[in-house]
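[agent] plan:
  1. take the single chain provided in the ticket
  2. run structure prediction with default settings
  3. attach C-alpha cells to the ticket
  4. add a short note for the reviewer (M.T.)
[agent] executing step 1
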Amino acid sequence: MILPWVVQCGQALNINQRLLSVNNLLNKRRAGVLLHITSLPGAGEKGDLGQDAYHFVNFLHDAGVSVWQTLPLGMTHADGSPYQCLSAHAGNPALIDIDGLANLGWLQISEQCDESQGTSAFNQSCLVAKAYHGFLERAERRDWDDFAHFCQEKAFWLDDFALFIALRNEFNQQCWNQWPEHFKERDSKALREARHRLLTEMETIKFEQYVFFRQWMALKAYANERGVLLFGDIPIFVSYDSADVWANREVFKLDESGEMLVVAGVPPDYFSATGQRWGNPHYDWKYLKKTGFNWWIERMDTQLEQFDILRIDHFRGLEAAWEIPADEPTAQNGQWVKAPGKALLNAIKAQLGSIPLVAEDLGIITDEVEELRDEFNLPGMKILQFAFGSGPDNPYLPDNYVKNCVVYTGTHDNDTTLGWSLSISDYERNYVYDYLGNPSISLHCALVQAALGSVANLAVIPMQDILELGSEARMNTPGTTEGNWKWRFQWHQLSAERAARLAHLVKLFNRN
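[agent] step 2 finished; step 3 output follows
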C-alpha cells in the first residue's frame, strides 16, 4: 500500500515527541539485520521497494527482529556505491517499485512489458517517465496536491538537484567541472534559460523523487506498524560529482575554479596497506560554523524523516579528518586536520532535538574521538571479526563491551563471517573456539550467537550470516572498484530452519 506524502509527513515525529522516544530506541535490547534494499530478491536488476521489501519486514517481525539496517539510499554513480551519491538528499530512482505505479493507474500494463529494454536502469527510468505522463493524464486531485506539496517542501534541495541531473544528462554524464563554463559557474542567465528549456525533464526528475519518497515512507510506516525500526547510514562526506557540491561550492575546500585542493580518505589500516583514497571533497568548516551548520542540519533532517535510527559513517572525521593533497595517487601522504564535531553536534541537537545516532568509530580511534562520542552518549560499533588477534584488551572482545554499543559479526565492508572463518589462521581459529567455550556449532554460527548474547543493546547480523553464505556473497571490498554492491539473496536460501533458528536466538537472548 502506498500512502500519500502529506499523510506521511503528518505522521512524522516532532521534536518534543522525538525527545520522549529517542532513549527507548537505543537503550533496550534489540536485534537487527543488515540488508541493503538492492540485495532484496525480485525480478528486476536489483531489489526495490516493492512486495519483497514488505515480505522482508514480515520475516523480521516474525523472528522478533526490531531493526532493519540499510546502506545509504541515495542516487548512485555508475559504480553503484551508495557511499558516493549524486545528492545528499535525493533517493535512488532505481529502487522505485514499478508495479506500484501500475497499481495507481499511472502506468499501463502494456507499457511495462517492453522486454526488448530488459530490466536495466535506463528502462526503469523510461518507465517512471511514462508513469509521469500517466500521472499528468489520470492522477486524482489529491495526488496533484500531494506532488505539489512535496515539491514545495523539498525545494531547498530538489530544485537544484533536478536542474543538476537534467544538465548532467545533457552533457553525457560528465562531472559538473567539465561542463561549459557558464553552467559550471552557475551563471544566473544561463541557469534561467536552462530551467525554461529543460522544464519537462526537470519535472520528471522531481516526479521520480516524489515517487521514491512516497514509496519509502509507505514502507517505513508498514515496518513501524510491525514493530520494525529503520536504521539508516549517513556518509560523512559527499561526492564531488554531486548536486551538493555544484550548488554549494562555498561549503567545501575548493579553489577558485571549483577544483578540489584536498580529498578525503583514511591512512593505511586493516583494509589497505596504502590507505583508502576516497576522493571526496573536504568541508570548509569555518564557513559551515559561520552559517550555523545549516547545510548539515538540513541534511540530517532529511535523513531523520526517512529513518528511525541513523549511523554517522566515519564518525572520527567529525573530530579530525585525513586530508590528502588532491594530486596524490594514494592515501599515504596525508595529514589529520581538526574538525568542529562538538559544535556541529550541539547545533544539530539545538535544531532537531536529541536524535538516535550511532557513531561508526572503527579504524584509527583516538582518545579525543572517544570523548566526543561519549559526551553525546552515542553508541559506538563493535565488530566480532576484529576481536580475536591482539589479546584480552582488544575492544572488540565481548567481555570488553558496554551496553551502549552496537555489535556486528561484520559489516558491508567485511567478508561474510563464514568467508572470514575459512580464511583465518589455525591460531586465530583455536583462539575463537577457546574464547567461546569450544562450541559444537560452526565458527560462523557461534559468532552470530555471541553477538546476540552480548551485553550490547543492539546486535546487528548481516543477512549473509543468517543465510550462512561464503565470500561469494560479500557486499564490498574496500579499496576496490569492481564487483561490489551486487549481492542479492533469494527466498529459497532462507529456509524455515534458519528463520526459526534466528527467532530462537533472538528470544533466547531477550532481544525480541
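[agent] step 4 note for reviewer: The CA atoms of residues 28 and 270 lie 31 Å apart.
[agent] ticket updated
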